[in-house]
Design goal:
With 122 residues, this protein is of the alpha+beta class. The chain has helices at residues 10-16, 34-47, 90-103, 108-121, and strands at 2-6, 21-24, 27-29, 52-58, 65-70, 75-79, 82-86. The chain has 2 domains: 2-87, 2-Layer Sandwich (Alpha-Beta Plaits); 89-122, no CATH class. A hairpin with a 6-residue loop joins strand 4 and strand 5 (65-70).
Length: 122
């Protein structure tokens, strides 16, 4: 497997060096079981903050490999059984940014309700 990190915290890199070799800055390689690979990927997703991560590993499919992407604007898609990377257009980027901004935080109404609730207790 090959795992490439960009702009991730040092603690993520430290966790990965327990299982994989760092052959270049942010590039980790190794041969681990599927269970360990999935656990490492979960750990990377949880701790990457604002960085990017790309995982490529061998799989029993037509391409002979599979990959996962986290924190990138490019998206993996299935095209007639072949996994490809979709480069986003400007319109697609804007809609994705709007969706992400809607998911972050609480609504204004929820903030006002919480402010009223907590201000009465003081």
């Amino acid at each position: 497997m090959v795992l490439q990190l960009t702009d991730c915290p040092h603690r993520v890199r430290g966790d990965l060096t327990k299982w994989l070799f760092e052959i270049s800055a942010g590039v980790f390689v190794g041969q681990v079981s599927a269970r360990v690979r999935d656990m490492l990927w979960t750990r990377v997703q949880e701790t990457r903050s604002h960085g990017r991560a790309v995982l490529v590993y061998s799989a029993n499919n037509e391409q002979g490999l599979d990959f996962r992407v986290c924190g990138d604007t490019w998206e993996p898609i299935d095209f007639d059984g072949i996994k490809l990377m979709l480069r986003p257009t400007a319109i697609r980027l804007k809609t994705k940014q709007k969706q992400e901004s809607l998911r972050l935080g609480f609504s204004d109404a929820a903030k006002r309700r919480a402010t009223k609730r907590f201000s009465g207790n003081r």
